[in-house]
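Support reply, case 0932

Customer input (verbatim):
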Amino acid sequence: MEADRVLEQVRATGLLAPAAPVVVLLSGGRDSVCLLDVAVEVAGAAAVTALHVNYGLRVEADGDERYCHELCERLEVELQVERPRRPATAHNLQAWARDVRYAPAALTAQERDASIAAGHTADDQVETILYRLASSPSRRALLGMRARDGRLVRPLLQITRAQTTAWCRERGLAWRDDATNDGDAYARNRVRRALVPALESIHPAAAANVLRTAALLRDEAAVLDELVEAQLTREPGANGAGSTIALERLAALPPALRRLVVQRLADEVAGRPVAGAARHADEVVALRRTGTAMLDLGSGVRAVAERGVLRAERDVSPPARA
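Our regenerated output:
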């Protein structure tokens, strides 16, 4: 049965473990329903907490919440419900929704020393890679989502949407469909509905090939990360930056490694990826070796060269007056 194969694949990842506390992000869709049921099978109901966010943006939202209550009662899982209201200043709906979903999950996970499990599937991985490649081309775009990112885990990342559907049907579990996933308002929907089928019309294994390429690149990225690490000097607490490198040493590196070093410095100080920081590598190398020089790397991060030593720091300069 497909459910047995899914369970075996998830157990093999080690992202869910018997009695290990986990907060499952539960929308009510088939992937999250599958994930919750799998988590109960692997970790046990007592170790699982479900988090549902009722954004109140769709007429079906209250029905989704009721379904999640019914499902959690059936599975004997604790359910936490959040009902945020979108502030007038939240112009990016998807970013706001992501923030109000992960923030309470992180709080609960910290209190219970738990992981946070999201129901991203192999299909989501393909769509994410293609979307990122089109919208912000970089090496990172081709790496896709990580199976583990801090407390966040994605146990279904090797499981297809067809498999989560089969799991739910074999287990007698209903799910809620989000009609907005069928429209073209969001770019990711267009990737799912148009781009992926177009690629599969060229080659039936297109999606599998994207996943295989990403897996190979992640393996190679681990090697590159070690090379980058070897170039840096660790100085915890130095002006908010944990790593430095002499500008002369940076200039002597091959261009590809130079870009990776600049990107690492920016990412470390920001605590998240700084899109496009690597593109400034040549400008960084050109900073003067005497005194202090600075260069904006984007996303509120700047490169600082002080007496020939480079670091990155957050830009806390007050905004310019109009």
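We compared this against your earlier run and they match. Two observations from our side: The radius of gyration is 22 Å. The chain has two domains: 2-119+154-182, 232-314. Please reopen the case if you see a mismatch on your end.
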